[in-house]
Write a structure and sequence with these properties.
alpha+beta
């Protein structure tokens, strides 16, 4: 799910994130004939002291080579994604650490606690209770355009509404209904998207089709257009 965390324990990750490590994703654009698509890369872990720009060079180069051709969105999206990538991509550290079940609120983290325990003798005590297992999520949505562009949100397994009305994920755009759609897990554990009665429609776009939907099972990489062309767009990922 996350590139670059191989070989690191939760305690190591917590310590590195406190020292400046970050989880980021990058955007890229490609065009096929006159159609253009804006997508999000996998999520990368950038250790403290390393450049957040370097991993994005691949995606910026791809956009520069094949992003321009579509009209008009290729001309609009290509410079936007290259600029964003060169400023360090989109930071999703909080969401990634939550999904990994790592609590940054514990002072010092596991590694510091272990060091204190070794340095200060204590009387025998009852073993600490095992940490609660991380709650499952229904994935992430990364907004590619609209008022929340560049932001990522974890989808809780119980689901959430997306629209202009308070009480859900608020997307303040004219194409979006007060309660436009709902995203969450179904009984089979699949992430589903449900249009809850919007007038402007909800569209799922992937490599093979662009479809207006009332209900659909989301696959990683699917893009969802709220209100059609010109409306806010988010991409679903696991």
């Amino acid at each position: 799910m996350f590139k670059g965390i191989e070989g690191r324990s939760p305690a190591q990750l917590a310590d590195e994130v406190r020292r400046g490590g970050r989880f980021v994703f990058y955007q890229y654009c490609f065009s096929v004939l006159i159609m253009s698509f804006k997508r999000a890369s996998p999520i990368y872990y950038i250790p403290p002291g390393q450049s957040k720009v370097t991993p994005g060079l691949l995606w910026s180069g791809l956009s520069f080579l094949v992003g321009w051709w579509g009209f008009p969105w290729g001309f609009v999206w290509t410079p936007m994604v290259i600029f964003k990538n060169f400023t360090g991509g989109n930071d999703v550290t909080t969401e990634a650490m939550s999904d990994l079940g790592i609590d940054l609120s514990a002072p010092g983290g596991a590694s510091v606690a272990a060091g204190v325990a070794a340095a200060v003798p204590t009387s025998p005590a009852a073993p600490a209770p095992a940490p609660a297992p991380a709650q499952p999520t229904a994935g992430y949505i990364h907004f590619l355009s609209g008022p929340l562009a560049g932001q990522a949100f974890t989808v809780p397994p119980t689901g959430m509404y997306i629209g202009q009305a308070p009480g859900g994920l608020v997307v303040a755009a004219p194409q979006v209904a007060p309660q436009h759609c709902w995203v969450g897990l179904d009984q089979a554990g699949q992430t589903v998207l449900v249009d809850v009665g919007s007038q402007t429609g909800t569209f799922v776009v992937n490599a093979t089709a662009s479809t207006q939907v009332q209900q659909a099972v989301l696959q990683p990489g699917d893009q969802v257009f709220l209100g059609g062309q010109g409306g806010p767009v988010f991409q679903f990922n696991r």
